[in-house]
């Protein structure tokens, strides 16, 4: 079986390509091998996952990883959407959209940043994504005074004159969990400290669901219309935000919202950070669901503080300083490096 696992890794490297000429990465191959090992352990063919891994396999993956790291790691990473960047995204949302779509786009930025979601978990996808892996309105709740939990489909039950302290979503199944029902809850708390600028994730979502109550058994952010919030719309906002802030538009993408809160709460404990994104291990960055509300309250102010991760810090850490990236003054006229603007959305 170890020999077969070795050949399996080679087969993946030579037949799977993320795009022409770019083979699947070593880290992804390692995940495939882990899935196979888990299946073999479950079927009682082996006693533990490491039984499938030989020294040759470890060396092979290490070699593949060296080939993958052809550029500095910081230049191959997605730029995290920290709170200041999310605030700029919100400004672009207001410039590009009006009416229902503006409120929905605001909610998309708030929920993706606040809950550290993958795009497929809240956006309208072109492919057929099972609802059990997405943010179902049936499983979304606002918490008032930390003791009254009301579903977003029942706005008539909201306490009069009160705003929620927490937004909570009970995900049924997430990508990094093996069994159905291990996905949630995930929560974000309302900010309590006042800042001169910015927005509150919870109040933004409250604005959306008050105006457009959720419909049970549907993707939550389709309450305002069946089209929901499409991926290209969020990608465009990411692009315009990156060019305005002098960041690489190719690396500020919708998936950047998945990692933004991790950068924002970097000084918090590993446990807090694991809870934020629902990661199983520090290496993979396990949500301890019973502490979800406490976690949300504990980091609410840090999530909404623009001074924790200034734009200058992100620019210094993630930009390629060998190639100047100038802010775009007018979209479509000036591009990266000051040349004639190419549309890098696609």
Highlighted features:
6 strands, 346 residues, hpI Integrase, Chain A, disordered C terminus, alpha+beta, two-stranded antiparallel ribbon
Please provide a written account of the structure:
There is one protein chain. The chain folds into two domains: 2-70, no CATH class; 75-321, hpI Integrase, Chain A (Orthogonal Bundle), CATH 1.10.443.10. It contains twelve helices and six strands. The protein has helices at residues 2-15, 26-42, 55-68, 73-76, 83-96, 99-115, 201-211, 231-245, 256-264, 270-277, 292-303, 311-318; strands at residues 17-19, 22-23, 140-144, 148-151, 166-169, 186-189. The strands form two sheets. Strands 4-3-5-6 form a four-stranded antiparallel β-sheet. A two-stranded antiparallel sheet has the order 1-2. The longest helix has 17 residues, at 26-42. It is globular. The model is unreliable at 286-291 and 328-346 (pLDDT under 50).
């Amino acid at each position: 079986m170890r020999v077969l696992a070795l050949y399996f890794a080679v087969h993946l490297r030579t037949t799977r390509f993320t795009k022409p000429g770019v083979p699947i990465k070593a880290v992804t191959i390692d995940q495939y091998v882990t899935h196979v090992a888990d299946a073999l352990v479950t079927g009682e063919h082996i006693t533990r996952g490491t039984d499938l891994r030989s020294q040759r396999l470890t060396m092979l993956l290490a070699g593949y990883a060296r080939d993958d790291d052809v550029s500095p790691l910081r230049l191959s990473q997605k730029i995290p959407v920290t709170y200041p960047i999310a605030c700029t995204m919100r400004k672009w949302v207001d410039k590009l959209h009006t009416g229902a779509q503006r409120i929905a786009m605001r909610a998309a930025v708030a929920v993706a940043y606040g809950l550290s979601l993958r795009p497929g978990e809240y956006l309208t996808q072109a492919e057929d994504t099972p609802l059990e892996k997405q943010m179902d309105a049936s499983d979304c709740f606002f918490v008032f005074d930390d003791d009254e939990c009301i579903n977003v489909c029942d706005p008539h039950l909201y306490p009069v004159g009160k705003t929620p302290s927490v937004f909570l979503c009970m995900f049924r199944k997430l990508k990094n969990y093996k069994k159905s029902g291990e996905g949630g809850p995930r929560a974000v708390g309302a900010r309590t400290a006042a800042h001169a600028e910015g927005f509150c994730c919870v109040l933004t979502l409250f604005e959306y669901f008050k105006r457009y109550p959720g419909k049970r058994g549907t993707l939550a952010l389709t309450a305002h219309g069946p089209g929901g919030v499409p991926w290209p719309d969020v990608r465009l906002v990411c692009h315009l935000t990156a060019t305005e802030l002098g960041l690489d538009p190719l690396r500020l993408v919708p998936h950047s919202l998945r990692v933004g809160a991790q950068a924002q709460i970097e000084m918090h404990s590993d446990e807090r950070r694991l809870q934020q994104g629902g990661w199983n291990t520090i290496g993979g960055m396990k949500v301890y669901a019973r502490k979800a509300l406490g976690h949300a309250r504990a980091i609410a102010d840090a999530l909404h503080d623009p001074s924790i991760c200034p734009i200058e810090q992100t620019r210094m850490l993630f930009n390629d300083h060998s190639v100047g990236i100038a802010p775009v003054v007018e979209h479509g006229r000036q591009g990266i490096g000051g040349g004639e603007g190419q549309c890098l959305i696609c």
